[in-house]
Write a structure and sequence with these properties.
Blueprint lengths: L2 H13 L3 H6 L1 E8 L7 E2 H13 L2 E8 L3 E3 L2 E12 L2 E13 L5 E8 L2 E2 L11
Parallel strand pairs: 1-7
Antiparallel strand pairs: 1-2, 3-5, 4-5, 5-6, 6-7, 6-8
Length: 128
């Protein structure tokens, strides 16, 4: 799987709330840090648990993934999501910092994001 395919599959899995597909993108011992202030979710079970909880209140997620920037086994990619979360429209832009294993799965993920009320389109130049 190429980095671009990985990024597209991550976005598709998010849109469809597909925890199995997300878990398949990561090594069995991967660390998934969803916020700099949270402990990471570790391993397949930890990632599945986090992912299931995180998407449980999300409806109509429109997930857009930017163009990944690759440097060796490291990847950075922006994402922009609009959705309904607990009946309110929100915009959730963010950035993934990824480290890949030799087999093409992700071994470590860190993400940074911001929540804004309302449904907003990305700014010009976003994701490039």
């Amino acid at each position: 799987m190429t980095v671009e395919e990985w990024v597209e599959e991550y976005g598709r899995a998010w849109r469809e709330k597909d925890a199995d597909a997300v878990v398949a993108l990561f090594t069995e011992d991967a660390e998934y840090r969803s916020s700099p202030f949270r402990e990471p979710s570790v391993g397949s079970a930890g990632i599945r648990d986090y992912w299931t909880r995180a998407t449980s209140t999300q409806e109509n997620a429109d997930v857009r993934m930017g163009r990944p920037i690759v440097a060796g086994d490291r990847v950075v990619v922006e994402w922009w999501t609009t959705m309904r979360d607990e009946r309110e429209g929100i915009t959730l832009p963010g950035c993934l910092l990824l480290r890949f294993a030799p087999d093409g799965r992700c071994a470590a993920l860190r993400e940074y994001w911001h929540v804004e009320p309302g449904l907003h389109e990305p700014h010009p130049g976003w994701g490039q």
